[in-house]
Amino acid sequence: MESLNRTDRSRTRFRIFQLAMGFALLCALGLTQACSGSQPDAADSVADSTREAAATASTLQQIERQRLAALVDADMAVIQRLHAEDFELVPPPGVPLSRADYVDLVRTGGLDYQAFEPISDINVRVHGTAATLWYSSRIDVVAAGQGHLVHEAWLLVLYEKRAGQWQVVREQATAVGGFPPAG
User: How far is CA 133 from CA 69, 94, 128, 171, 180, in A?
Assistant: First the structure.
């Protein structure tokens, strides 16, 4: 009787093995079909997502260039539109500035940008309704209390999409070679 039980157990194990192998084969075939394009919805979705991310990145690069031009031109309407109410900047000296302080400095000439331009690609990473931009820039500014400064800086800028519009929320500028720049 015991030998019969062993035989039954062996058959049961073999049958489970066969079922598992059959299931693995079906899964492998299903993955092969998915990879070969027999499911266009998944591939189309990835392609659409990639195109959308590239379009958003391009839009943000344009907005950032527009923002820098507005700072040079002291175009207060554009500056106020693109900087969120809770915007904060940490400039190279390391003292944080609120939106109100920063906008006021540009408006009054306390920060008079002569040039503010990217000198590297503006790298963009989009995360839903937020995006980070990272690039190197050349800044030529007359700053009250510091004089005329020309230097390079790395910028890390955080944008958020609010009410359908991209706005700068945070900005960190790190001077290349230290601050203030060697004269």
Answer: 16, 19, 14, 9, 24
Distances (CA, A) of 84 to 6, 33, 89, 165: 75, 48, 11, 10
Beta-sheet pairing, 97-98 with 123-127: unpaired
pLDDT at 32 over 50: no
The half-sphere exposure of 160 on its side-chain side, counting CA atoms within 13 A, is 10
Complete DSSP assignment for 136-182: EEEEEEEETTTEEEEEEEEEEEEEEEETTEEEEEEEEEEETT-SSPP
pLDDT tens sequence across 124-148: 999 999 999 999 999 999 998 889 9
Conformation bin of residue 37: beta by default, left when phi > 0, alpha when psi is -120 to 50: left
Dihedral of alpha carbons 74, 79, 80, 83, sign = negative
CA pair distance 128, 113, nearest whole angstrom? 32
Residue found under tokens 């915007």: 87
